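FAQ: What does the model actually see?

It sees only this:
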Amino acid sequence: MIDPVEPLRRWRAARARRRALWARLEQLPTEVDEQAMAQAHQAGELALLGEAHHDTRLLADHAATVAGDAYAAAGDLRPWIAALDERSSGEAQKAAVVHDHELRLERIERQLAVVWFGRLLAHTPVPEGPLVSVILPTFDRAALLPEAIASVREQSYGRWELLVVDDGSTDGTAALLDGYDDPRIRRFHSDRLGASGARNVALDEVRVEIVAYLDSDNRLDRDWLKAVVWGFDAHPGEDALYGARVIDHPDRVYGPDVGPFPGLQFEPFDRAALEEGNFADMGVLAHRAGLDVRFDEALRWYGDWDLFLQLTAERPPLELPAVAVYYATAPEDRLTPLAGAAQPPEVTHDYERVRAKHGRSRR
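And it is asked to produce this:
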């Protein structure tokens, strides 16, 4: 292998020979013909160029040899690199499996917490102190409304009032409400304000300590209000809480991968995740009365998401491991789109409106 310093040495030697040649030429008699001097000079330059060309060829050969050696060395490393890539891929797959198992285990632990808390609550006396207002807006759901109202009237906690806002129904809802002889059921009317506007009508009429919610196509668990009162009593520093919901057909909400059987949803609170999308239904939310929260009446969809973001803007809520609501996916006029169904542009518009209000947007 050529010493890469050798061409430099040869160039210096050539420069020395050239200087010696010029010194000899300067010693020639002054009568030497100028043409001969020029020819001698050209001869010297040609000799120098020849030696430089030779040195360039040596450098090129050396570079080619170095490149060949490097390529051969890279070839020797390829099997090792391939094995390392395969091992890294395997480790990544293992990490993904472990993460998936961790999420499943956390979900199971939270579901078990709901089961054990429910059993404990059934044997725990909760004094009937604070009055709880349940807000229920409705529009043309006379066939479903009786079950929703019954789920409130059957609560194990007796100190409640139900604020029903009929948002201009034309299907006999008014006559249905006239049939209830229960002073705890307070009836209000609004003129097609939408669910958010109707809820605001009820919020303006609240004169109690705690507010809960129910949609007219769902049913409360009979111990939910008892759990809510227990939660705020045991945690006096909390202003908002959320519980779990049982979904009759999770595959209609999340797609076929989750299976067709009823499932319990009780996600851990994560503000960043909440800013990306809602993971709590209207019926699982409860808060103390008098908070500076309102429903955005410009929203037809995602009113519950907007409220949840308002309630948790400053601090996380209390995660109460209790079943709040039994969530029905069958009604054709439900606001939440089913999994896989085409979403109208208005749904996307409301989604972006909520994100923009709370500091996030895809645009």
